[in-house]
């Protein structure tokens, strides 16, 4: 594909990926940048007022200002999020496809479930950031009220119908982890693995001997919030009793509620922090407390990129990767012992951190998305050939 005759694709997403304030935005931003190395990419999204610019000549954005949300959209049949976020974008998507777009990449399956049937694009690619049916099921199981449980259960049941159909309709699906790849293949979808990449930190230092436990997340997200509450209730007290001066730093939106719930000064919550480098540098270990949810936790990859071990409950094992240094991911039901051991055995901790340094350089975003990018370009080129166009 020459720079003068690049295929044109749309990347449809609920919000601007710039600035990448959370894991979902970061993944879409990296996917857009990777595709822009070989394709002309137009990112179509709703405007939230915090959209940022970028300087890639092969990457442009189209923001749709009005969402026109219907409170009852998707209640009975389709994915509610698809109705809410894809419907307002549909006129602009249709216009761009008519103007010559060679394919559409949907950033979430719920967007594709709404859009694939309504837009006659040459090629449809879906990034399965989550398996929504599994995510909704975990929400239903953890819901605190009958109303909430019923609502999430309805979304789960609907997703068991629309999600497999959507995967099969796609020309290509991107899976974020091995578990999700197994689900996609079980439903006869054409799929390629596209893990979250690691963005190597500019400078990575060994963890200090008296470093703290660090947790970074959006604490308004229910699986994160409930996981942290359980950690504070069952694990942190024991850690405090066995490790003198142990500290827990909780960074992210809505984190202050955890510090308020603890009666001593061992837990601090500075809120949202734009630059985490200093916090990672002064930490000893990173906690990922979620016990449910879906997809992959980008903050795990971020912790490894800063040379830090990640600990958490058994659910965290879904983040395991081939070739990851032993001890870099500790997913266990005996979380208290693991945290205590990691804080106190400094030499073992430093050995794992040294091994992580080499691993990170081999698993950047470019490396992790490379195979997926090849497949995306192949299906787009195939669609162009089917229409009698020269993809080169």
From TrEMBL:
Superkingdom as given in the UniProt entry: Bacteria
UniProt keyword list: Transferase
Species annotation: Mycolicibacterium neoaurum
Protein name as catalogued: Sugar transferase, PEP-CTERM/EpsH1 system associated
Pfam families per UniProt: Glyco_trans_1_4 (PF13692)
Molecular functions (GO terms): transferase activity
